[in-house]
């Protein structure tokens, strides 16, 4: 029984060691070249009054070693309008994607904003959600 526990402990140690080395090399590969990281990819407005402020700013950082370009930012419908810088973001710098939701439309909403960058073939999907309450007459 002691031999079995010893072998099991050593096996777990080697597996965890090899996994951590694999993760470290993956992180280095992302930073060499083009890479983007968002502080958050989802924002919940909660309850908003009809006609209230429906804007939110998603903050991201260029964690790569080369300038990053936002090629396109698209929303899932016309009620959500994204704004972003067309200039390249230098390595290590941050940028903002400002999203405005039309709060004249009452009820629950969940909208996606798809971000296409020079960093990766897969786009980043941002989500806004909330509930616009009708104004009292």
Question: Can you walk me through this structure?
Answer:
There is one protein chain. By secondary structure, the chain is α+β, with helices and mostly antiparallel strands. The chain has two domains: 1-31; 36-133, Immunoglobulin-like (Sandwich), CATH 2.60.40. It is 22% helix and 43% strand. It contains one helix and eight strands; from the N terminus they run H-E-E-E-E-E-E-E-E. Strands 1-3-6-5 form a four-stranded antiparallel β-sheet, with no helix packed on it. Strands 2-8-7-4 form a four-stranded mixed β-sheet, with no helix packed on it. A hairpin with a 6-residue loop joins strand 7 and strand 8. The chain is elongated, with a radius of gyration of 22 Å. The model is unreliable at 19-30 (pLDDT under 50).
Descriptive keywords:
single chain; 137 residues; alpha+beta; Immunoglobulin-like; 2 domains; four-stranded antiparallel β-sheet; four-stranded mixed β-sheet; 8 strands
């Amino acid at each position: 029984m002691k031999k079995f526990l010893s072998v099991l402990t050593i096996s777990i140690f080697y597996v965890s060691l090899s996994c951590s080395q694999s993760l470290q090399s993956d992180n280095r590969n992302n930073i060499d070249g083009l890479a983007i990281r968002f502080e958050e990819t989802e924002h919940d407005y909660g309850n908003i009054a009809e006609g209230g402020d429906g804007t939110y700013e998603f903050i991201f950082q260029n964690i790569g070693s080369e300038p990053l370009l936002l090629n396109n930012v698209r929303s899932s419908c016309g009620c959500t309008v994204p704004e972003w810088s067309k200039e390249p973001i230098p390595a290590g710098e941050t940028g903002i994607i400002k999203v405005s939701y039309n709060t004249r439309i009452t009820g629950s909403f969940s909208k996606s904003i798809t971000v296409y960058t020079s960093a990766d073939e897969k786009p980043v999907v941002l989500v806004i959600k909330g509930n616009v309450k009708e104004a009292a007459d």
